[in-house]
Amino acid sequence: MKAIEDIQKKITVVAPSAAPGSTDSLELPKFVNQARRSESFVAFIARTYRELAKVKFALASFVVNSIRKRYHRSVLGFAWSMLNPLLTMGVMTLVFSVLFHLPLKQFALQLFSGLMPWMFISESWTMGSTSILVAEPFLKKVYLPKAFFPLVSSLQALSNFIFSMASLMVIALLMGMQVGPAMLALPLAIGVLFLFNFAMCLVLSVLTVYLRDLTHVVGVALGLAFYSVPIIYPITQVPLKYHIFIKLNPFYYFLDLFRSIICRNEFPPAYEWGITFGISIFTVVVGLLLLKSKENDIIYRL
Amino acid sequence: MSSARIHIEDAWLRFRSYKNPSPALKEIALSGLRRNRDAKSTVEFDALKEINLDVRGGDRLGIIGLNGAGKSTLLKMIVGIYPPHAGTVTVIGRVTPLIELGTGFDSELSGRENIFLNGALLGRSYSEMVALEKAITEFSELGDKMELPIKYYSSGMLGRLAFSIGALVEPEILIMDEVFATGDAHFVHKSMNRVKHLFQSSQIVVLVSHALTQIVELCNKAIVIHEGRIVNSGDPIAMVDYYHQEIAGIPEVRGLTVTQVE
């Protein structure tokens, strides 16, 4: 019975024009909608990229509008993107530098280099996980590639991260941050962290469609994971026998990229780039595979 | 320039309806404990069966049927929202769906800003929307109210804005699903005229409407859908008759009085 099997019939439309004398038969965009089980992974990636490129104005609009709306009604507006992390860091610095008896400026810098990327991770993952679910009104009315909304969430988190970092750079300089050639590595570090966060958004957004509690689970897990990496405590405070657990933690390497650049004014070692890129690319592949296999099922679950 | 085309060959769409599409952990745990489950948690049915359709540039296709027959589902399959699980849907040309008024309208933004947002969602670029903005504003007849956030618009104003954007973004294939419901007579008449004259021989319009006078006035072809199948196709007036007699079960109604208003 046809209804049970998937039948792929590709129609090659060679000269679709009804108007006589037309020369260019491939001018109009062609969209073939069919059960896509036999589409290869590479073809899927190419198709996703093409479809996203077609709607890049929509991507930009969503991100820009969300930024504007965030600060639209608030009195201080833009300043909050700086005040929020500044206050958090200020309190933490005071409290923990007293607790651990560390020099204030050094600790503040260490905290800055760890907390900012962590907030980027946290915001990406929590916003990203609900991105497809909350996009239901869009996905049911317009055709958009499913990767669109995770990408929007990731870009929103990225823009917040860049704004916060930029505005706190001044404070960092006051705290003794040294600007050297290592700074050139900063955009690359941001890039690889963004890639990782985007990939996790892909994974989480698809999984959350099946299990909506996942957002809460992610929130709690991240809250706990915060303590598993040396952000608020220096690694020197950790007994040596536990260092292995920290070194096995993937977050450690992403954060250490920033710590190398900001605290130590050093270009991060090659093995750290290797690990972070490796994790990012692996996660991207997992996310895209997941999306490809669940692409058609998701729309029925919204 | 080659013209737009919609070609659907032997397409079937199996719709899955989940009682609980995104369960929470609690619900999964509880359903495991419960031995007897009263109803199946998913319902599968063929929303569209054996659809064969060929629409060429210059056609204005009307789709008629009872509620729940599959008209909107067919539109969504053409747009690409629901993939068929058998068969192929080939669409050549840029599709502009007007499936609900103001898809993606952001109520905090002004009418003008929503023109750009909506255009973006329909796949247009910034420069294209800049060029079209004036024409859209004029057609919608909203004037100064364009600068107001659209949360202050009436449903008629929203409808006018949405339709103006959808019709004027130079679609090659315009898909309309019951979009004239909220318009007043003046605007509906103006819109229909615009659709009739704006679209040249290379473009396609697909219209779903329960206002059968619109179907007759606007379309040159019509299909009747019943329980997921296309049961008849042809001339709009004949199809409306068929629909009344066979489907809706109103045998007394024959033909339709259509007042041509120029």
Major sheet description of chain B? 6 strands, mixed
Strand content of chain B: 25-35%
Averaged pLDDT of chain B = 82
Average residue-wise pLDDT of chain A = 82
Blueprint of the fold:
The complex is a heterodimer of chains A (302) and B (262).
Chain A lengths: L29 E5 L6 H14 L1 H17 L6 H22 L3 H26 L1 H4 L1 H4 L8 H27 L11 H25 L3 H12 L17 H5 L2 H13 L7 H29 L4
Chain B lengths: L4 E14 L6 H9 L8 E15 L3 E6 L5 H9 L6 E7 L2 E4 L12 H11 L4 H15 L14 H14 L4 E5 L7 H14 L5 E5 L3 H7 L2 E6 L2 E6 L1 H12 L15
Parallel strand pairs in B: 3-7, 3-8, 5-6, 6-7
Antiparallel strand pairs in B: 1-2, 1-4, 8-9
Helix pairs in contact in B: 3-4, 3-5, 4-5, 5-6
Task: Describe it.
The complex is a heterodimer of chains A (302) and B (262). With 302 residues, chain A is mainly alpha-helical. Chain A has one domain (41-301). Helix content of chain A is 66%, strand content 2%. Chain A has twelve helices and one strand, in the order E-H-H-H-H-H-H-H-H-H-H-H-H. Chain A has helices at residues 41-54, 56-72, 79-100, 104-129, 131-134, 136-139, 148-174, 186-210, 214-225, 243-247, 250-262, 270-298; one strand at 30-34. Mean pLDDT of chain A is 82; it is low at 1-26. Chain B has 262 residues and is α/β, with parallel strands linked by helices. Chain B has a domain at 57-83 and 94-247: P-loop containing nucleotide triphosphate hydrolases (Rossmann fold, 3-Layer(aba) Sandwich). Helix content of chain B is 35%, strand content 26%. Chain B has eight helices and nine strands. In chain B, strands 5-6-7-3-8-9 form a six-stranded mixed β-sheet, with helices on both faces. A three-stranded antiparallel β-sheet of chain B has the order 2-1-4. In chain B, strand 8 (221-226) and strand 9 (229-234) form a beta hairpin. Chain B is globular, with a radius of gyration of 20 Å. Mean pLDDT of chain B is 82; it is low at 257-262. At the A-B interface, strand 1, helix 2, helix 6 and helix 8 of A face strand 1, helix 1, strand 2, helix 2 and strand 4 of B.
